[in-house]
Amino acid sequence: MEYYSIYSQGLARVAACTLPVHPAQPLENARDTVQAAAQCHDDGVALAVFPELSLTGYNIDDLLLQDVLLDEVLEAIEVLREASTTLTPVIVVGAPLRYRNRIYNCAVVIHKGRVLGVAPKSYIPNYREFYEKRHFASGAGTRGELEIPGVGSVPFGADLIFEAADVRGLSFHVEICEDMWVPVPPSAEAALAGATMLLNISGSPITVGRAADREALVKAASTRCAAAYVYTAAGQGESSTDLSWDGQAMVYELGNKLAESERFAQGPQLTITDIDLDILRQERSRQGTFDDNALGGGAFRTISFRLEPPMEDIGLRREVARFPFVPANEALLNQDCYEAYNIQVYGLTQRLRAIGNPKIVIGVSGGLDSTHALIVAARAMDLLERPRTDILAYTLPGFATSDHTKNNAYRLAGSLGVSFKEIDIRPAASQMLADMGHPFASGEEVYDVTFENVQAGLRTDFLFRLANEKSGIVLGTGDLSELALGWCTFGVGDQMSHYNVNPGVPKTLMQHLIRWVIASHQFENQVGEVLQSILDTEISPELVPAKDGANIQSTQQKIGPYELQDFTLYYLLRFGLRPSKIAFYAWHAWHDVNLGRFPAGFPTDERNEYTMEEIKNWMELFLRRFFANQFKRSTLPNGPKVVAGGTLSPRGDWRMPSDISGSVWLKDLENIELG
Ligand SMILES: Nc1ncnc2c1ncn2[C@@H]1O[C@H](COP(=O)(O)OP(=O)(O)OC[C@H]2O[C@@H]([n+]3cccc(C(=O)O)c3)[C@H](O)[C@@H]2O)[C@@H](O)[C@H]1O
Ligand SMILES: Nc1ncnc2c1ncn2[C@@H]1O[C@H](COP(=O)(O)OP(=O)(O)OP(=O)(O)O)[C@@H](O)[C@H]1O
Ligand SMILES: NC(=O)CC[C@H](N)C(=O)O
After folding, report:
1. Where is the active site (predicted)?
2. Which residue's C-alpha comes closest to atom 28 of ligand 2?
3. Which domain holds residue 206?
4. For residue 474, which ligand has an atom nearest its CA?
5. In a domain, 266, yes or no
6. Is the reported ipTM for this assembly greater than 0.90?
7. 597-631 residue pLDDT tens
8. Has 207 been labeled as part of a binding site?
């Protein structure tokens, strides 16, 4: 098995094809279809899907009932069947076929010399521009066998699910155009019966606004059915007697658009993308209501085939976001930031109101997290129509606090108009270290974890006792990424607070939230200027003093780049993917700085790339810390869930024993090929 093959990694490639059609010329259409299928074969495609009535054209009216045409359709199917013997993709084409007394509007499924089955359309539109009942019978409820000359008897019905025996999770159902426009489409029942890929071959004429309607249906179907939905509609060549055609094709997975065609295009359009079958399986296994809905559902026949896909590296045809928590699309990012910020502000206002409007006590370091918590608090006070002076902000410099961050804290508090005080924690820390007999007290440069935690602990101690004295609550600042990595001091430390606004915010989103707060003018202009200066400062815990001339203690040098750690966190929490697969995605997202997109406005000099070796090493550190630090999460203070990727609250999205071994996850890292 080749590690870099999409098929080893639980993905499958689909092609939604629209070809210029030759109306009423089945053999011509078959020839073009074979050519397109051969191209799909070269591209490593598993499913090549063509529009409704693609062998005849959709818009040929009463010619659909002509014997000579229906006979040539059978010849065209034979051409496809023969050609398919040497091709990998399953070929799905549209054709009118005789069955008993009537003609049916069918999807013919062909693979490696077999006609695997024929799925007739269930819902036959006969309204406005559609006159299909004049020609076609409905296939709803049919569970039969269809005799195809030269082929024999093949399963015929809307009850067919096609399943690859050699590709886990690859099973599909085909429905035909109008089938998806009804309240309960056949594909919904097929999904409940196990189909992960729902194909729709369509002959949908274009009118103004219809493309958006189709897309809404496809997106909704893929979300509701926890499936991939592959849609392809007729285009160029269809008769324009009374209608026009745009050849829209699109692929959605779980509500996310993976690919779409150019509409009104000239020439063949092959919309190719890779569907993640693991993600679909994972989603269905954790959302139990999906299966609950299957009670009493229809019975389906399963048709098994062996795909034998290419197992070498054929690239990856889907965009993998570098920052799964930060959309590259500016409008989406703005929307996410608006929601995230308001989720946090809501969380805090509700808690304050519910417990009699205490003051807020917060330690402000000048770093990103406490800055953001402070501007959430300030907004909450504004909404509650309380003075911002009810926020009691403290700067608590220790042995390594830089003037720059301290200044930022001063300026921020000043511009926001919150109450502000400095308490030097060094005397208390020195006393504690001396009482403990720590070597630092006798002048040795021993900057161990005790030295760090004495400072973090004393800050917490001060804040909690100040909260007692001032009738306040301590506002927590730790973020989701730090919780994942256990990058906080337990109990008597920054892990603890009375309420935390940040535990649902990943570090990679934090800076964008602050940028959004500046750009959307949540506060006065001078607040924006200080916020910008804070954004420009490197992330550091500032617990260990830097030697002269040396760089300050860098968090990311110790626990890895947050951009990689957040990537792993997202796929682990949201989809439960195995580490070696997350690394496969991480490599595609991060190995070349020039590929793919960065979020809008992402500074050019901060754009990084990583080798597979770096990805693997940082992932190992992530996993070690992730499992070892569950105890810090299982006693987490209250705070709101923010991103869909999950939270780490033991009362919410993440439950795990605090004494568990992550050895199985670490062992899986051995499956990574460094390339
Ligand atoms: N499963 C488990 N159940 C119960 N207790 C467990 C445990 N695993 C370890 N422990 C105990 O927990 C203690 C270790 O935890 P803890 O005291 O927190 O200490 P620890 O995790 O070793 O250190 C905290 C780290 O976080 C960093 N930090 C702190 C504060 C802020 C920031 C920041 O940049 O934001 C970073 C700091 O630089 C340091 O490296 C040990 O006493 C250990 O025995
Ligand atoms: N010098 C300081 N003055 C006041 N509070 C501090 C100071 N240093 C740390 N804290 C408090 O402890 C929390 C964790 O500190 P630390 O700076 O180590 O982590 P951080 O997650 O990088 O947070 P931030 O981004 O706010 O600095 C801070 O958010 C802040 O509330
Ligand atoms: N061919 C069809 O079934 C088309 C009907 C469908 N409502 C559409 O406009 O897309």
Report:
1. 52, 121, 177
2. 370
3. 13-305
4. 2
5. yes
6. yes
7. 999 888 899 999 999 999 999 999 999 999 999 99
8. no
